[in-house]
Amino acid sequence: MYRWLSLLLIMVLLSTVVLACGGDGDDEEQVSPTPTGEKPSPTVTSASPSPAVQTPPPTPSPTKVVPTGTLTVAVQTIAVRPWIGPFSQGETTEKPYWAPVYDYLVYDAGRDDFMPGLAQSWKISEDGKSITFKLRQGVQFHDNWGEMTSEDVKFTIDRVLNPDLSECRNCQTNFGAIFDRVETNGPYEVTVYVTKSRAADVLGWMCQSHAHGIGISSKAYYDSAGAQKANEHLIGTGPYTFTGFEVGSKLTLEAGEDHWRVVPQFKTIVFKEVPELTTRVAMLQTGEADIAEVTPEQAAYLKGKGFGITTVPKVRYYSVSLLGQWLPERPTYDPE
Hints:
7-stranded mixed beta sheet, D-Maltodextrin-Binding Protein, domain 2, 19% helix, alpha+beta, single chain
């Protein structure tokens, strides 16, 4: 059970969503030209005076959304060590805190459907054993680490699957049952081949809403900085950049102003680690925190005090997983 699925958040009524709706990256901002002057009146032969030509007032340019302010979120635990991110051991429980640093190939459109992300389109082969993604061009990694290409997608998936390079054992167990290999077809096209699964299943694993959904990382950054630094200071293409993380204290994100997908509403997000429930409640009441993780009992109390409540539906589910039966070296291996 992933703790982040069961978070119960208290939100100050004035607090709104972190990310304002943004247009698709392919849509350019339309700015109406400003008139430079009056058009000359046409020459007439009549002795009557010509009517004055009315110059329309300049059309105002669309207002650019600029992130402002700080959103402070008090949570019980962030992470127990500085190594975090998509290749860490705590990848699933820590994901809510660093997920805005990354973009994903696809996004959840509801009802088991997906909408384009870093992948503008995708096509499943006729035999259902591969899926080819056409990537969005011009998306840049933070801190000038270059453009996101198919090499970064291949690197990210290959690294997640490699137990020597990634600590995400759940990823390797689950992804290993689906992914066979990844091939690049030029800088903006990548094909993922599957084993005994359906290629369509890849979409779920590359989606931001999946517990193990893969955010695309920079190959150049990992090659240059090394795994230790790259997993302590995260680089992605998401709407927020990673500012810093202090174990046992806080994790800070800073918004960009020209992201291709969404424009963040808040300039800064600060996740504060506050183990004591009573302290988190007090932070809400004093205004030190805008959002806090609390228990259902405290939620009912705070609702009576006028605080807004946001709950996560379907926070618990039960399943039986026969893990390892697709791995030949495991005693439960079943070739059928």
